[in-house]
Design brief:
single chain, alpha+beta, Lipocalin, 2 domains, seven-stranded antiparallel sheet, two-stranded antiparallel ribbon, 3 helices, 13 strands, elongated
Length: 197
């Protein structure tokens, strides 16, 4: 009888220790280079975006390490705008650079992260403006020659035409672009995530 009691007690003790061991927190590392897939919750426009702003996003695929889900699909994430430049009317292309700065883990904690960057540059003005300015200068020169009939009149006409061309190029507007809400991205971790579960 005593042997059965000792055996039963040993079993209970072993089971209790195993339960405590399984309940003990463990740290899981998501290595650098792991892809993070997400989508924007709000559109980003180069006309209004500023460096340092954040935009809500959400994961479109879970982050899983060795069969353990570190972050679930649909988990909130944050996009950090690193650079944003609006397009000028005469010169300068619109630019946008952003990366992920945080993600909500399956344990409910928000983790700060560093990822690769999304980068895009908008349409350049150079060719567009050259067409407007050059074309207007030619038209101005022809008009000056027709009206004045000499070299000075032609030069003045070309200068006036170029000025009109510059105004026309400016009036055609800026070449900003927008990245719509719902756009999907795939960036990679630059540094590991350490999560305790």
């Amino acid at each position: 009888m005593r042997t059965k009691t000792v055996a039963a007690g040993s079993f209970i003790l072993f089971f209790a220790l195993a339960s405590v061991a399984s309940a003990a927190p463990r740290t899981i590392v998501v290595p650098a280079g792991t892809p993070i897939r997400f989508k924007l919750q709000r559109s980003i426009s180069t006309a209004t975006a500023k460096p340092g702003q954040t935009v809500a996003a959400e994961l479109t695929s879970p982050i899983v390490v060795n069969g353990v889900t570190i972050a679930r699909a649909g988990a909130p994430a944050t996009v950090h705008i690193r650079n944003a430049e609006a397009s000028g009317r005469i010169g300068g292309s619109a630019k946008l650079v952003f990366s992920l700065s945080s993600v909500t883990l399956a344990n409910g904690n928000s983790a700060s992260i560093r990822t690769s960057s999304y980068s895009r540059e908008g349409k350049a003005h150079a060719k567009h403006n050259a067409t407007y300015i050059g074309g207007a200068a030619v038209i101005g020169a022809l008009a000056g020659q027709a009206l004045g009939g000499n070299r000075d009149a032609t030069a003045k006409g070309a200068a006036i035409g170029a000025g009109v061309g510059i105004a026309g190029a400016a009036a055609t507007g800026k070449f900003d672009f927008e990245v719509p809400a719902g756009t999907h991205f795939r960036l990679t971790l630059r540094t590991a995530i350490r999560a305790t579960f």
